[in-house]
Amino acid sequence: MKQPILLKRVLILYITFFSSLLMAQSGIAIPGWILKNGEEIKGNIYVENWYKNPEYIYFSSNDGKKLSYTASTIEKFGTDDGEHLYISYEINIDITHKSNLSLEEREKLEDVVFLKVLQEGEADLYFFNDKNANSHFFTTKSDQALELLIYASKPTQVGEKKIMQTDEAYKVQLDIKFRDCESIKEQIAQTSYNAKSLNKLFKAYLDCKNVEPNYSINYSKNHIYHGPQLGLAMTQTSARLEPHPNLGIADFGNKLTPRLGYFFIFNRGSKLAKYAIRFSVNYGILNISGLETVNFVPLSGIEPYDVTYDVNMKFHNVHVKGGFQYYVSRGTNKPYIFGDLGVAGIVNTAINEVHQATLRFGMTSEETLIAYDRVKSIRYAADGGFGFARNRIFLELGVEWDNGISPYAAYPDQNLSYFFTAGYSLH
After folding, report:
1. Residue 98: is its pLDDT beyond 70?
2. Distances (CA, A) of 392 to 225, 227, 241
3. Distance between the two ends of the chain, CA-based, in angstroms?
4. 74 to each of 56, 145, 285, how far by Cα in Å?
5. Is domain 222-424 annotated with CATH 2.40.160.20?
6. Domain ranges of the chain
7. What is the mean predicted confidence (pLDDT) over 417-426?
8. Contact, 169 vs 186, CB < 8 A?
9. Does position 252 have pLDDT exceeding 80, yes or no?
10. pTM reported for the whole predicted model
11. 406 to each of 230, 241, 411, how far by Cα in Å?
């Protein structure tokens, strides 16, 4: 009973520590700059969620003083790596989530906000994601005022049926705005109301005008996160033991095992991608020592019996796995589910050790000497579970199973582990 209690206490400490760490953060520091009263100031930017347009940011200049800024106090901010650029504008838009509400019921937003810059130059394209997850795109050109690109769905009565009718007024707006470039007229008609499609159109316009943008977001860039992992697992192990490995399986119960690893997460196209490919290498030590009374389950029809082993075995377990992540929601705070499949290698460091085993059959017992040599085993492994990513920290809780490739593979016959790991991305 001590092992489960110990695991529970350690998990509580782990979760408490990392929860407080996550709650205390206002975002990971990213080198960047702000534009305030026309002056560019270098320092570090802290943003909790890069996917939603931030209502405010924390910024510390080189003197180390950390202050909060809203869109009404600074004109612009960006990161040195070019991943993020925001500009302040006053907007007045409809942010109602439901499209069938009356004009009186609809929700409006009139405020100075941070707009995400998708493209800036001869023609500017900005993006705003409101609190109801509605997407809004804005554009300016030369000295023209900020203009909302209009896209809306509304219920329309057609005979006895009510259907949703789409208003793609943005295409008419763009046709007028880009009338000095006839070659992209057909592309305007095929442009969808999303960031990638609109950005592609704006790039085509600049190509038509033979000018380069001052800034353009890159949607084709691949992102790789990688870093160390540290965690604990409660492992239930079953082994086929000498001298009669084919007669039955000994269940050694639950063992608390530490694990150390390294992970790679590959997002194709954008840091905000829904899917990611992952690879990981994990190393753990399964230690079985002392007087162990285990339940021995024969493969034949004999009733299970207890076996007492005086053992000193240490298994070095290495897992190499690859799989996928699916983000339930995107942004800096990203819960996700994951699954992996791979191989595991187990090496027992006990070399020619002799162990005393007392086999009890009902009221009788028999003593025998059991000798082990160094054991190597190649196995297959799989895992799955839930994770949470915030900025550079990845927390995962899951279950892992590995088994021998053949029924007569070297022991342990199988491991079932419940694990909790914390990883930190160096990228």
Report:
1. no
2. 8, 9, 44
3. 41
4. 10, 19, 53
5. yes
6. 222-424
7. 91
8. no
9. no
10. 0.56
11. 31, 15, 11
